[in-house]
Amino acid sequence: MLLVVLEHDRGSLAEASKEALTFGRTLAEKMGVDPHAALIGSDADDLVEVAGEYGAGTVHTVTHEILSDFGPEAWGEVVVQLVDELDPDAVLACGTERGNEVMAQAAARLDAPFVANCTDISPDDEWAITRTQWGGSLLEDVTLETEIPLVTCAFHTVPSSPADAGSPEVESIDVDLDNDLARSIVQERVVLEAGMTLPTAPVVVGGGRGVGSADGFAPLEELAELLGGKVGCSRAVTNNGWRPHTDQVGQTGTRIAPEVYIASGISGAIQHFVGASGSKHILAVNTDPDANMVTKADWAVIGDLHEVIPAISEEIRRRQS
Amino acid sequence: MNILVCVKRVPAPGARINVTDDGMAVDAAHLGFTTSPHEECGVEEAVQLVEKHGGEVTVLTLGPAEAEEQLRYAASVGAHHGVLVPTDGSAWDPQRTATALTEVIEGLEGSAEGGEDDNPFDLIIFGNESADSGGFQVGVRVAHALGRPIVNGIKGVEIDEAAGTVEARREIDGGFEVYRLAMPAVVGVKEGINLPRYPTMKGRLASKKVEVTSVEADADAGGQAMIRLHRPTEAVSETVILGEGPGAAGAVCDVLEELGVL
Fold first, then answer.
1. A-B contacts (CB, under 8 Å)
2. How far is Cα A20 from Cα A163, in angstroms, rounded to an integer?
3. Across residues B103-126, what is the average pLDDT?
């Protein structure tokens, strides 16, 4: 059996979990085993049906008084006890921040290897895996030698798709958790921002070093507002203190997936591009026709963003009036 | 407060990453090297914490002899000690790295005050993941081996000296989660937790005098073995040039209308 550990936040299933189940169905088929799912925490009961819909034949649920909220050590220990109890052939999660963290915790406890962010797995006697490095800018082929492979699939490796499956069997598993594991459970939450955020914005107007200053972003803000989008930026911009890090698009910032990314004054270093690669379309504005961002874009305007961006806003207002 | 920051020396690529002919490393012939970004912020965070609460910052790296550059850089922005665990420069798997680091940290803690008593670092800071290999696990393995709590993805740290705890904040959609870890504790931090300072001339000069200790450590290879690195197949895109300068605004709006965003 392939055990797929599902990620949810107080009962709200992460989209990534559907991807893990989709990736897991293919992997389980290659392994010649059945995909099962694990749901950790008392508020996850409603998710059993979704797990089934995405192909889990059996869902193992775990509840315990200290699992009041997410906690990386407690969740990692639960995975270890599920491995002991169920003896799966492999364990898979999605390579999100939490998914990788929980699997790393489980691996540390089992003193076993853990391969993060896999994109392709050949589960032969010795597992041959392709995984991402540099946030996906580079791929690494590895072999994995271990009794029970622990892996995550890289986020957005496969689009989630439901399986043609009926209701799953549900099996409740008892775990024995030391009170000490409560030490790293979430204590409280603070809500900062409601509404559209950079990862979900339908349009992102990005600015790079070429914008030149914090004030230089005003025309980008104006264009983003006209298009119902958000402003993003490159690492050079945050390093200069022109924009907060929450606006940074890239490997160490936010991954965006807008309908169109208008990248202005951005040369397009790979660490930036990997954060923008989920964009459906890219329109670059740059003075340099050979800039990496220009050559990777669908459309480009060659020119100074300080002139081009306000001209686009003006044209939009003209058409809207 | 005694704080340890574990950092990694990584290449600083530009528009493209190339791989060496044998496929075993990034071709760094024309690249500079830097500290992995999350860890650069880790150093800054540690320096800010000791500026506020007193104490010292030690920076530890496992890597080639040249990684001393990253330790000197950390010293130039305020770290007090540097420790290098030298390797031949080849990539170590996560289990081997974590085991060696744990051994070194236990050694440093046993001897931090020159006595025999354990003197644990109040806080150990890792980067959430390294910029290059991105294994997402070395910090977790080290913390577990040391028996200390760890939370990853941290973008805010505050120390409560009276309570002996570290409050760690982790970003979630539209807000953050708060964890309170009893020290000694470990956190994996992410870029954005602060804006790292640039070294001053005085800092650069002072960094030359900071002692960098070399500590030998090694461990058995883990179960994950690298075969080769390669570049993903890139979607070849033909870029349509819509025009030059502000005169292209009309063509841009046509495209935006076509995409349905206007």
1. 264
2. 13
3. 82
